Amino acid sequence: MLEPSPRFWEIFFEVYGALPRQGPGNRACAARALSLCRDLPPSPAVLDLGCGAGGQTLHLAELLDGSIMAIDTHTPGIELLKKKITARGLDQRIQARVGDMSDLQLPPRSFDLIWSEGALYNIGIAAALKLCHDLLRPNGYLAFTDAVWREDNPPAEVRAGFELDYPAMGDTDQLITTIQAAGFELIGHFTLPDEAWWEDFYTPMEERIKELRHVYSHDPQALAILDQIGEEPALHRHHSRCYAYEFFVVRRPGTTDLLSTDWTDGIG
Description:
The structure is a single chain. By secondary structure, this protein is of the alpha/beta class. It has a single domain (6-34, 44-251), classed as Vaccinia Virus protein VP39 (Rossmann fold, 3-Layer(aba) Sandwich), CATH 3.40.50.150. It has helices at 6-16, 27-35, 55-63, 75-87, 125-135, 156-165, 172-181, 195-215, 220-239; strands at residues 45-49, 67-72, 94-98, 111-117, 136-149, 185-191, 243-251. The chain has a 7-stranded mixed sheet, with helices on both faces. Strand 4, helix 5 (125-135) and strand 5 (136-149) form a beta-alpha-beta unit. Helix 1 (6-16) crosses helix 9, helix 2 packs across helix 3 (55-63) and helix 8 (195-215) packs antiparallel against helix 9 (220-239). The N and C termini lie far apart (48 Å).
């Protein structure tokens, strides 16, 4: 299968970078997932992995106290998040930085809560769960969303769309088995409602694509790429019964080994 061209990624980030969030989810779902994290300390140390432009990062800052480290590989998204953080007076609570999930170089047992919406699959779920397990303090929580199949035999166009980006995608039961094999206790899970796909993601995406069609009205290549990107919300509109995003909340079991590290040590 051909890799997308540099021009594709240029247009892709022009679309996605302008959106309130870069994947399904909303504040209500974040609050519901947080409600399952019942024993967090009053001011938890939080890591937001694959934060994008930080839509959910800012929700977390509203919904809980404590410090948040937000990491993503995409520099423009991080720069945009930094501007939002400063505008909201949150510089003392949120640290946004560019980083690779597979090479974070963070000390083990540094966080009370790791949050990741639609990003862990990028390095493989099993590898990501091991990473999170190591970074969590005993009794720490991991809250994450991941795409799952809801039908065994989805239409070919649906299967093809996901195989391009997530060929290892499984169903909810398979993911729970992987979670437990990684040493986590499953606390709970729920399916994101359809509004979590549209409110802050697909509706503004379609509006952004419409805007860019005017900008690139005389650029056939850009228009073809916009058509390609626009296939995603159209696919969801017709085939959402076939797949879902599931929100999982899991916990690293406690241990008598009390060794832990605070990532904020030394930050003045």
